[in-house]
Prior knowledge:
- This protein is α+β, with helices and mostly antiparallel strands.
- The chain has a single domain (5-137), classed as Transcriptional regulator MraZ domain (Chemotaxis protein chec).
- The chain has helices at 20-23, 45-57, 63-73, 91-97, 117-127, 130-137; strands at 5-9, 15-17, 30-34, 40-44, 77-79, 86-88, 102-107, 111-115.
- Strands 1-7-8-4-3-5 form a 6-stranded antiparallel sheet, sandwiched between helices. Strands 2-6 form a two-stranded antiparallel sheet.
- The protein is globular and about 45 Å long.
Amino acid sequence: MFLGQYRHTLDDKGRLTIPAAFREALAEGAFISQGFDRNLMVMTSAYFQQVYARIQAMSITDPAARLLRRLILSSAYQVEVDKAGRILVPQNLRQFLGLDGEAMVIGQGEYFEIFTPEAWDAQMQTLQDVEANTARFQALDLGT
């Protein structure tokens, strides 16, 4: 499971160091793709296959399904963790994000996200608004 937030650096070749706690889960490979919030998503191969199966089951006559397919699949690349614990972030995804130098790696359970530090700071400001969170999340049932 991918949990927590980490600040890591990208080298000149676009390789991002993955938190040590995440590396074992990526041993069988992973996929990186554009995310939904001006970020990137990194999924294990098994989880990506589940997402792909859900997308594949959607009707291609549905315009929203076609857009989702394009968003995820056209920007998806298979990646592997190298011996130094890094993955190569494809250039077009680095450009999309404006990723250069430092990155925030954010655990999301089944996958993790990559943000620029500035974009993650903006996310944190949103997440720390107590009144807005009450209104946002009251319809979600987190009861056990």
